[in-house]
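Q: What residues go here?
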């Protein structure tokens, strides 16, 4: 129990419990501000922050309460009496899980870890084979988001030549969405027997994954109209009566940096343009922070060439089954589970590695 007590004390100090309580009280006061409760987006962001703080404070309170309970139990009972309490083992296991959850919270130290995010997936060279791999990755992240209880929306999608996708952009909303998925940024390599090869030969495919935060309020990024190239095009559809007959999809190119954002999921061109501008401002702010803080270890990993030797993770389906992360060396033979969205172990391993390297 001394180990548990010490861990809880250290975690409460790390989180600054009293400061968290003050921050929560401040959020409650903001709810009564007319400028806040009259703005739906601000109220949504405020409500989400309140829930996150409330959950963290409850976890801290429950953990401290459990430690106090077991300390009192062990100090007043002898070993024989303690064995009569059938819930002791289960209670200690529950306490260990609470401590582990609190430890995990300490790994989210990035500036935008609490933000929602955009996942951009691009197929590498290789036609249908690489495009199919890009679509497999998009399915993996959609399933992961479903497991985590995240909300997702396909912002833009460019179909492949016969199979898969050439590129796809997915917005992900939920607690620590960016903090988790930033660990997926980089090149992903697949080795398998190609379903598109009549001779059943083994093929290697690549796809790049880029992850950017969605920052709700970006007030200090100035974009001049002459720096933008705005194109409109028809949104993709299922065909027939569902085809969008108006050019409501929007693509914006920021000429000085070459950053391109596009959106086609909203109902009107104006809405698509507004969301695309929000994406662009977030990416420009991210780029500025990269340059200012020189955080190249993670934020630059997505700039690698989509080819052999630059991958962050390999997925081997033939001649054996293995998924291996080349940053942490974490690996598993359960490739089916990974491709079905169970990538949390890879993300946690990288979070721990990053915390050690800080």
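A:
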């Amino acid at each position: 129990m001394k180990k548990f007590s010490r861990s809880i004390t250290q975690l409460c100090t790390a989180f600054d419990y009293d400061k968290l309580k003050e921050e929560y009280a401040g959020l409650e006061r903001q709810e009564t501000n007319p400028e806040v409760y009259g703005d739906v987006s601000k109220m949504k962001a405020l409500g989400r922050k309140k829930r996150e703080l409330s959950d963290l404070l409850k976890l801290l309170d429950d953990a401290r309460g459990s430690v106090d309970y077991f300390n009192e139990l062990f100090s007043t009972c002898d070993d024989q009496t303690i064995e009569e309490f059938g819930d002791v083992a289960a209670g200690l296991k529950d306490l260990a899980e609470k401590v582990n959850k609190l430890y995990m919270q300490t790994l989210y130290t990035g500036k935008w870890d609490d933000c929602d995010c955009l996942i951009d997936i691009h197929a590498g060279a290789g036609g249908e084979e690489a495009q199919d791999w890009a679509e497999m990755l998009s399915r993996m992240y959609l399933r992961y988001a479903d497991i985590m209880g995240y909300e997702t929306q396909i912002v833009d999608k460019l179909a492949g030549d016969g199979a898969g996708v050439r590129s796809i952009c997915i917005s992900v909303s939920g607690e620590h969405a960016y903090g988790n998925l930033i660990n997926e940024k980089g090149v992903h390599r697949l080795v398998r027997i190609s379903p598109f090869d009549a001779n059943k030969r083994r093929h290697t495919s690549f796809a790049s994954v880029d992850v950017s935060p969605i920052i709700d309020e970006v007030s200090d990024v100035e974009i001049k109209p002459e720096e933008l190239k705005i194109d409109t095009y028809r949104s993709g559809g299922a065909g027939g009566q569902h085809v969008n007959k108006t050019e409501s999809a929007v693509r914006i190119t920021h000429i000085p940096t070459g950053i391109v954002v596009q959106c086609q999921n909203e109902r009107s061109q104006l809405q698509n343009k507004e969301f695309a501008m929000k994406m662009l401002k977030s990416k420009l702010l991210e780029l500025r922070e990269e340059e200012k803080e020189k955080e190249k270890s993670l934020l630059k990993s997505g700039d690698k060439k989509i080819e052999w030797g630059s991958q962050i993770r390999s997925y081997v389906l033939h001649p054996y089954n293995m998924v291996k992360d080349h940053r942490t060396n974490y690996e598993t033979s359960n490739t089916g589970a990974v491709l079905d969205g169970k990538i949390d172990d890879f993300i946690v391993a990288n979070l721990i590695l990053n915390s050690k390297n800080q």
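A: Context that may help when evaluating the design: The first helix runs from residue 2 to 15. The chain is about 45% helix and 20% strand.
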